[in-house]
Each structure stands twice: as structure tokens, then as C-alpha cells.
Amino acid sequence: MKRDVDRLMEERGIDVAVIEGEVKGNATMFYMINGAKLSHATVIKKRGEEPVLLCGTMEREEAEESGLRVIDTSKYDFMKILKDAGGDRLKASVEYYRIIFDELGVSGNVAFYGKGDTGANLVRLNALDEGLSNVTVMGEYSDNVFITARATKEPYEIERIREVGRLTCEVVQHVIDFWKSHRLEGDTLMKADGTPLTIGDCKTEIRIALAKRTLVEEVDTIFAIGRDAGIPHSRGNDTDTIMTGKTIVFDIFPQEQGAGYFFDMTRTFVLGEASSEILDAYAQLSEIHESVLAALKMGERAGKYQGMVCDFFEGHGHETPKTNPQVRNGYVHSLGHGVGLNIHENPRLSNAPGMADVLEPGHVFTVEPGIYYPDKGWGMRIEDVVYVHEDGTMENLTKFPKDLVVKL
Q1: Model confidence, pTM
Q2: Domains in the chain with CATH codes
């Protein structure tokens, strides 16, 4: 939570945090400007003080919506600084920050965060470190101050995630109704024009349904049928037809418009009738999914539940990462991840080396076991989002049935 930022900065020896770059795709920036509708900005956060937002004059009114102290950067006249630097943008950038840091009393260990070209940032930050005598430029490689703070959500964040979840469930139900609105010819759903309904048609319908609910796709929704459903992150082939008897993995992870909060849910469907092999496997998947949800406990290491799932699946004859790190058939991935302003955040329900997350109040995370056999022509996954309340109660935010078979 934001209240943890100053403590985390102190623990890590950071005097000042600077967050830069575009807002879109820059979760830390969005977090610090409280979702203000800006395109590009800089935030300077001195330890123990409120953040200051710097932005261009064109977005000055949008910046005021952040609730932060706002500085209009036109006052620094970057064009004059650039002219005085003989057009050398790197030299001008160092001088620009020198002026701002002097005005705001920035000194000591200054950590940079945000978004930008990796190589350009390397050159620029080295230049700032060399050119600013009272500043030591630093950074953090993983689980930085803001990633750590964002892992535990405040009540207003939970309500936004909850609402995205409600709308996401509406979209999934809409797709089921969309399937049912088509006639069946043999084993294929047909459109009114006499051509087969395809994955591409369904994805178009999904995008329209999302847009009507002011949600967007960050990347293409996972919507895969048959063999492709057996490849966990296959997006599916747009030309594949929607047929009965095949598993459809529908993993939808929309985001609020304007770089906001995500949700993440997966359901597996079979239209018409499912084979006994698929039904048996789905019964196993449902059993372990429900067992994990029932076993979740605040204060436990998140990776414990990955071990629980691996043991279960291996006991039912499926390979897992526990005994085969290169596994491609069976259970092939980790159990879950945090959800928030990024689709993948902490905590990680993983046994990978270095993963030591413990379930805490405010955590929001997925539980998503799956079974995959592409060579057999099927795959399946169930994914719900769970919230840890202050008292340790686990709340499933995914209010949608897990029925496998869709009768037509």
C-alpha cells in the first residue's frame, strides 16, 4: 500500500524516488498520480514528503486531478536549455534535472523508475550520476519499492478490481449466449450467411463486448480450441471453426480504459458433449482447484500451494514442473500471480528459486491450475481471482460458474 512507500524507501537507503515516462503501460506512474488522465509525466517523491507531479502545460488541468502538488514544466524552458547545450539532448537533460533538483532540494540516493528505452535510459542515468555532484543515481532490479507496495491493495483498489471482474464475467456470459445464438450443422456452429463461426468471429465479439463496458485488451485474449487449447498461452487461430466436443480455453484479462486495473479469469468449455477422457480430466482439475481455494491461509508461503498442485497431479499420472522442469504435457506452469495495475504482480504462487512470497492482507492473486495435452487435441484451465481480507478471510472475486459443457 502507498503508506508503505516511505518505510520501504528507508529500508532500502533511498532518499528520493523519481518516476518517469508515459502513463500507459507504466503502472508505477499510474499508481503515483492516482490515475490522472495524463499521457506523460514525472513524479518526484522525497522520503517522508508528499510526491510532486511535473507535467507539460497542455495537461495542467488533468494533472490537478491527481491531488498532488503540480509543477508546470514550461517554467524551466527546456528549449532554451537545449539551445544553450548546443542541441545536445543528453547534456540538456542533465542540466534540466539539475535545475529541478536544486529547486526541490533533491540530494542523496536518488532511485529512478518508470518506462523508456533501455539503452537510452542507461546512457542518461549514467550521465546524471556523473553530472550531478550531490546525487547518487541508483535503481532496483526486482520487487522494487513500488512493486512491493502495490502488492497489497487498498479498499478503493479492491472495489475497482471487483468491478472489472463483474464486467469480465458479463463478457464471458455474453460469449456463451453468442454461441447459443448460432445454429448447429453437424459438429460446427454456423453463421447466418452459411459460413462456419470462427475463433476470429468470437474474438471480434469479445472486443465489442469489452468496449461497451469501457474495458480494453492489453494483448490478445487467449481463446483457443482443440490442440491449441493444449498450449497454455496460445491465442488461438482466427480461422479455426467453433466445433462441438473440443475444449475451448477462454482466458480473458481485460483492463480498465486509461491504463487502470486488470482482472484475470479462465474458463474451459466444451460445446455439446465432452468425451469421457475430457470429463475425467476436468473432474481432477476441478477437484484440485477447489482444494487449493479451501486451503488458502494468510501467513502461508504462496509457493506451498504450487507444491500441493504438483503432488496432486503427479498422483494422478500427470507430469509437472516438480519432477520435470521442461514439462510440456500435463501440468506445465506455476499456480498463480498477483493482479492489479499489471496483469502479473506479486504475490507469485510459484516454487521457483527466490520466490518466497507470503500471503498477506490486501493481496489479490489468481489460482489457475491447468492440464494440457496438445497431441491428444485438448487442454483445460480454471482461473479465479482471490482477495485476502484484513482478517485473513479469502474472498473469491470471480463470480462465475465452472460448468464445462455448454448445451446447444
Answers
A1: 0.94
A2: 2-149 (3.40.350.10), 151-406 (3.90.230.10)
